[in-house]
Amino acid sequence: MLGVLLLAPAWAHAQATRTWVSGVGDDANPCSRTAPCRTLAGALPKTATGGEIDVLDPAALDGSDDFAAPAVAPVTLVIDKSITIDGGGRYVAAFGGVPMGDSIVVNLTSPGTVILRNLQLNGFAGTGSNGIRVVSSANVVLDHVDVAGYAQNCLLVDAGAGGALVDIASSTFSNCSTGVANRAAAAVNLGGDSAVVLNTVAGVSSNNPLGAVYFFNSNTRSNTQNTDLTTYVSGSSASVSGGSVGCAFANQQFVAPNAISRTLPVAVGGPAAAGFQFQTTNCGPGATVTVTLNYAQAMPASTVLYKFGPATPGATQSTWFPLPGAVLSADRKGFTYSLTDNGIGDSNGAIGFIDDPVLPLVPLPPSIPTLSHWALALLGVLVSAMMVWERRRQRARIPMRSA
C-alpha cells in the first residue's frame, strides 16, 4: 500500500491553481499544459478554489462532439467553488448542450465568485434546457459569453439564488425561449455591449419582487417580447419630450430599487413605486428633455423623486439626492421632471446622451426629540433638587410652637 501511495502522481494529492483542457485531452490526465484534461467537468476537481481553467484549442468541452478523441458522453458542468474559466481566444470553448439538461450550473456552497470568459454554449435547437443556471447566492461574471438554442433559458437565475449578483459584459443570449430570466431576489447587470435577441418568448424576464435587471449599454431587441417585467411595469408608462427631432428613449425600464443602487438614502422610509431608468437617443448635444412617469397606484403625498447620479454638473461621484423641479401629479400617480445633457442628474458624461435612474421615495417622518443618558441624569438631579427646595420652603412656612 505504501508503494502505491509513493508512486501516485503529484496531482492526486494537491489541486493546481491553474489547469488546462483540450479537445484531444483526457480526464485521466493531471490537467497540466502538457497533459490536459478533456472536459471542464474533469478539470474542475483538480483545480484549487479561486484558480483558473484555461482552454488550449477549440472543442466542445462537455464532451458532446463526436469528432474529438477520446469521445465521452456530454455532462453538465456543476461549479461548486470560486473559479475562472477562460476559453482563450474568443468563442473557442464550446458546449454542445446536455440533452434535456443544463450545460453549466453555478451552485456555490459558500460565498465566492465565478468568472466565465470566452465561452460559446449551443443547445442545438432546444435539446438542452438551460445554458447557464445560477442556483445559489454567488457573484457571477459573464465576459464574452454567447449562449444560444436552449429550450428554456439562455441564462436562468433560479428562485433559490437570492442575493446573487450577475455581471454581464460583451455577451449575447439568442434563440432560446427566454434570453435572460431572473426568478430570484438577485441583481443582474446586463451591460457592456451585450445583446438579447431573437428569443421566442421573451428577451429579458424578471418576476421576483426583490429581483432586478439593470440595463446599461446593451440591446434587447427582435424578441417575441423584448421585456417581461410584469412585477414592476404593470400599469406603468413613461414618455419623453423635447430635444431634437427624433428624440426618444433607448433601453428604458421600470426596475426594482436595488437595480439602481444597493443602498438607499438614510433619510427615507422606503420606495413608493418602482424605479425608472433610460438612455436617450437622437436628442442632440446639450438638449433638455422632459420625462413623465405614470404609475397604476397612487403614491403617498409626501413622496419625493430621488435621483442617483452626479448632484452637480461635472461631478464624478454618484449619490442620492432629491431631483430639483420634479413635480408629483395631482392624483399622486406620476412625476414630471426635466434633465439636461451633462447637467444635474445626467449619469452619462458623453455628449448627446442622458442617463436617468430615478426612484420615488417616501421620507421618514420627523423624529420625536429624545434626551441622551447624560441629559436624563441631569434632569433627575434637577428634579431631586427642586423637591428638596420645596420641602425646605414648606417647613419654613410652618409656625414654631410656643413652649
Automatic annotation (TrEMBL):
Keyword field contains Calcium: no
TM spans (from-to): 371-389
Taxonomic lineage of the native organism: Bacteria, Pseudomonadati, Pseudomonadota, Betaproteobacteria, Burkholderiales
Keyword Transmembrane helix: yes
Domain of life: Bacteria
Annotated ranges, domain IPTL-CTERM protein sorting: 367-393
Native source organism of the sequence: Acidovorax delafieldii 2AN
The entry's keywords: Membrane, Transmembrane, Transmembrane helix
Protein known as: IPTL-CTERM protein sorting domain-containing protein
